[in-house]
């Protein structure tokens, strides 16, 4: 834990929350402006959605190495450097607003490199620094507050960028299809990352280079292994080598034991599938919400604004509401997820029904659809806020939480790899050829919102199974779950 004044800890906390809250605006920028980028680059939605697949695969590949690096290098160096690289890559991305400056190959490189920076340098360092701002008794509070402020800063930065598009419209040197807006938004993000990089390099304590072995003035060696909280003093280099081998073996043996525990645990698999189905719905809404509203009479700039609203603002509201419901009413995260997924299923049904209706004034359907999308994201945000806390309900040992979260994340977030291109392929046969615009028949939206409905239904089934096992230890018994709700 950092030995700092309360004021300095607060400053570091808010700078980290601000940096981490805005860091993902760049890769997910595509979701808000996919129509404009498609027109500027001439690439299909399928090709553009493949960029998110590339981002997801790269992140997955570097997930474990990123954790390894975070345990060996200075968090100060990693966080500051990751924000600097993020700034440079975002500036490169911003050049897509100019005619012919950034092609599809460059976009692939940008998304690949950004994912590598995120997984290898940024995420683990961010988590580590936040954890070092307080002792173990306030870790949950620290991370919960950080998650809230990350979301708030994300929304603020997103809305400011929307304002930039409204203010700065220049077509002389930019692509006339809103290229200037795209450039200035991404340039704005690039400046944010650069400022955070400089500030964190100054205010985060600790050395730039993390040393795990050092020689003291008395000639003795001091070694701090990852598996120990206290340094070990040894007298010779030969003894130091033996100690390193011993602790390395202990470390990997424990990793293997924890891995076997996690992979054999039924509840771990259930939580993995719960997150998997919830995040599938999340990916569908974030990737194609803008396309839906544009097709139903809402202009591009307003559609991008609404996308920021329901992608980032309403999930915060959902998290706050259902966190209160859990602590004051249900007293159980697994029980709350059942209520959440019932509401998610209902709003998904309403979204599908809206997609099947035909009205002469499509704007009415666009407004209705935006309301349902906002509610869907509210319930998804609620679920994301509490599903990790189910781990404590099912008594996952503290020492295995890291490996359990890693395994859950691999399956739970795997939709990042395939959902976007798959749904784009489902929509492609129903595209209406109108030249520059990405317009689709209603069947395209019926297809993806049927898919969304299926995922919402399966999330409800899995949340039922988790709660049923928690209460009675089995999936199905004569003692039906409805009795527990009545009680």
| Number of helices in the DSSP assignment | 18
Biggest sheet details: 3 strands, antiparallel
The proportion of strand residues reads under 5%
SSE string, helices as H and strands as E: HHHHHHHHEEEHHHHHHHHEEHH
Question: Mind explaining what this structure looks like?
Answer:
With 487 residues, the chain is mainly alpha-helical. It contains 18 helices and five strands. The chain has helices at 6-23, 29-41, 45-61, 63-70, 75-94, 104-131, 139-167, 179-203, 237-264, 266-295, 300-330, 333-356, 362-386, 390-393, 401-412, 415-427, 442-472, 481-486, and strands spanning 213-215, 221-223, 232-234, 431-434, 437-440. The strands form two sheets. It has a three-stranded antiparallel β-sheet with strand order 1-2-3, with helices on one face. The protein has a two-stranded antiparallel sheet with strand order 4-5. Helix 1 (6-23) packs across helix 7 (139-167), helix 7 (139-167) packs antiparallel against helix 11 (300-330) and helix 11 (300-330) crosses helix 13 (362-386).
Give me a quick take on this structure.
The chain is 74% helix and 3% strand. With 487 residues, it is mainly α.
Q: Which characteristics define this entry?
A:
487 residues; mainly alpha; three-stranded antiparallel sheet; two-stranded antiparallel sheet; 18 helices; globular
List the helices and strands and how they pair.
Elements: H1 6-23, H2 29-41, H3 45-61, H4 63-70, H5 75-94, H6 104-131, H7 139-167, H8 179-203, E1 213-215, E2 221-223, E3 232-234, H9 237-264, H10 266-295, H11 300-330, H12 333-356, H13 362-386, H14 390-393, H15 401-412, H16 415-427, E4 431-434, E5 437-440, H17 442-472, H18 481-486
Antiparallel strand pairs: 1-2, 2-3, 4-5
Helix pairs in contact: 1-7, 1-8, 2-10, 2-11, 3-6, 3-16, 4-6, 5-6, 5-8, 7-8, 7-11, 10-11, 10-13, 10-15, 10-16, 10-17, 11-12, 11-13, 12-13, 12-17
């Amino acid at each position: 834990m950092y030995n700092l004044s309360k004021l300095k800890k607060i400053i570091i906390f808010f700078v980290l929350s601000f940096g981490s809250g805005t860091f993902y605006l760049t890769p997910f920028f595509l979701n808000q402006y996919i129509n404009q980028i498609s027109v500027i680059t001439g690439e299909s939605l399928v090709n553009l959605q493949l960029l998110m697949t590339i981002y997801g695969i790269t992140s997955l590949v570097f997930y474990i190495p990123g954790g390894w690096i975070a345990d060996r290098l200075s968090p100060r160096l990693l966080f500051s450097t990751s924000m600097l690289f993020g700034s440079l890559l975002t500036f490169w991305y911003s050049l897509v607003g100019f005619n012919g400056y950034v092609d599809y190959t460059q976009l692939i490189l940008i998304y690949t490199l950004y994912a590598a920076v995120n997984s290898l340098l940024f995420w683990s360092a961010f988590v580590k620094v936040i954890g070092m701002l307080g002792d173990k008794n306030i870790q949950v509070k620290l991370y919960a507050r950080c998650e809230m402020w990350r979301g708030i800063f994300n929304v603020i930065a997103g809305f400011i960028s929307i304002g930039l598009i409204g203010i700065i419209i220049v077509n002389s040197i930019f692509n006339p299809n809103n290229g200037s807006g795209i450039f200035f938004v991404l340039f704005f993000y690039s400046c944010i990352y650069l400022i955070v990089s400089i500030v964190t390099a100054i205010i985060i304590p600790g050395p730039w280079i993390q040393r795990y072995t050092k020689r003291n003035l008395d000639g003795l060696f001091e070694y701090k292994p990852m598996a120990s909280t206290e340094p070990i003093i040894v007298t010779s280099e030969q003894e130091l080598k033996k100690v390193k081998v011993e602790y390395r073996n202990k470390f990997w043996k424990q990793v293997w034991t924890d891995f076997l525990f996690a992979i054999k645990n039924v509840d771990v698999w259930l939580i993995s599938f719960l997150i998997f189905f919830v995040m599938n719905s999340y990916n569908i809404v974030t990737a194609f919400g803008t396309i839906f509203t544009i097709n139903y009479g809402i202009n591009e700039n307003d559609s991008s604004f609404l996308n920021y609203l329901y992608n980032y603002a309403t999930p915060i509201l959902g998290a706050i509401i259902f966190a209160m419901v859990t602590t004051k009413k249900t007293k159980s995260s697994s029980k709350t997820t059942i209520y959440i997924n019932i509401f998610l299923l209902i709003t998904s049904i309403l979204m599908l029904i809206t997609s099947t209706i035909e009205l002469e004034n499509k704007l009415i359907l666009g407004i209705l659809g935006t309301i349902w999308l906002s509610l869907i994201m509210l319930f998804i945000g609620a679920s994301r806020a509490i599903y990790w806390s189910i781990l404590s309900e099912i008594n996952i040992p503290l020492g295995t939480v890291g490996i359990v979260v890693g395994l859950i994340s691999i399956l739970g977030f795997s939709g990042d790899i395939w959902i976007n291109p798959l749904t784009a392929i489902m929509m492609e046969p129903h595209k209406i050829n109108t030249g520059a615009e990405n317009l689709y028949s209603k069947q395209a939206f019926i297809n993806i919102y049927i898919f969304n409905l299926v995922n919402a239904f399966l999330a409800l089934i899995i949340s039922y199974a988790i709660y049923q096992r928690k209460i009675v230890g089995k999936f199905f018994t004569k003692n039906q779950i409805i009795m527990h709700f009545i009680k």
